[in-house]
Amino acid sequence: MSLLANLFRSSIGRKFLMAVSGLILTGFAFGHLAGNLQIFSHPDRINGYAYFLQSLGPVLWLVRLVLLGAVGLHVWAAVALTLESKAARGPSDYGVHKWLAATIASRTMRISGLVVLAFVIYHILHFTVGLAGTEYYKGNIAEVILGHDVREFGFPLASKGTAVHDVYSMIFIGFASPLVAGFYILATGLLAVHLWHGADSMFQTLGLRSSKWSCCLRKAVALLALGYFIGNLAIPGAILSGLAKPAEGTYAAKVLSTR
Ligand code: HEM
Questions:
Q1: Is 146 exposed, middle or buried (0-12, 13-18, 19+ CB in 10 A)?
Q2: pLDDT in tens, 200-216
Q3: pTM (2 decimals)?
Q4: Does any ligand 1 atom lie closer than 6 A to the CB of residue 123?
Q5: Domains by residue range for the chain, with CATH
Q6: Which residue has a Cα nearest atom 36 of ligand 1?
C-alpha cells in the first residue's frame, strides 16, 4: 500500500507512472496506425478488421478502459510534475522569468500534449460517435457486405457476406475535407514530436541518457517518431491529394464523384 502511495506522491513515482502510461498509449498509437494503413488495401480489409474489433464486445470495453485510465494517469502526472517543478523554482521565477525558465522541450510537451488531447476528443466524435459532421453518417449508409473472407496472419476476422460498418468510406469521405485532413496532419505531427521528446525524458529518468547506448537509443526513437509521422501523414495526405482514390463501387466513390 505504501509503495502505491509513494508512486503517486514522490516525484520519481510520478515520472514512472508517466512513463508506463505513455508506453501503453504509444503501443496503442503504433497498433492503430498499422490497422489504419489497411486503407490502402481492398475495402474489405479495413472494414473486416474494424468489424473484428467491434465484435470483441467486453474485451473492447476493457481495452478502452485501460486506455482511458492511461490518458487520465498521464495527464494527472504531467500536471503534478509541472506544478512541482514550478514550486521548486520558487516565487522569484514567476512573471517574466517564468517563460524563460521553462525549457523549450517541456513547453513543447505541454502544448503538443494539449493539442493531441483535443484531437483525440474530436477524432472520437468524428469517427467513433459520428457527431463531428461526417457526411458518411449523414448518408445513412452504415453497412457494406463483405465480398470475401478477411484473415490477419491466418486468423479469421470476418467472413464473406457479413454486414459491416463501412469504415473505408468513412475515412475517404472524412479526409476529402482539407480542414479535417489538415488538422489530422498537424495533430499527428505534434504527437510524433511528443513521443520523441517523451521517450527522451524517460531515458533521462532511467539514467540511460549517459549510457553508451544513449546515442543509438535516441536515434532509434527519433527514427520511430519520424516513421510514425510519415505513416499517419500518408493517409490524409494521399486521400486529399488524390493519390489514393476510393475503390470503384464503394459508397465513398459514389459520394466523392459528385463533387
Ligand atoms: C490518419 C490517422 C487516423 C485514422 C485514419 C484513424 C481512424 C480511426 C477510425 C476509423 C476509428 C473508428 C473505428 C470504428 O468506429 O470502427 C478510430 C478510432 C479511434 N482512434 Fe483513430 N485514426 C487515426 C489517428 C489516430 C490517432 C493519432 C489517435 C491517437 C493517438 C487515434 C485514436 C483513436 C481512438 C482512441 C479511437 C477510439 C477507439 C475505440 O473505439 O475505442 N486515432 N480511428
A1: buried
A2: 888 888 777 777 777 88
A3: 0.90
A4: yes
A5: 2-257 (1.20.1300)
A6: 124
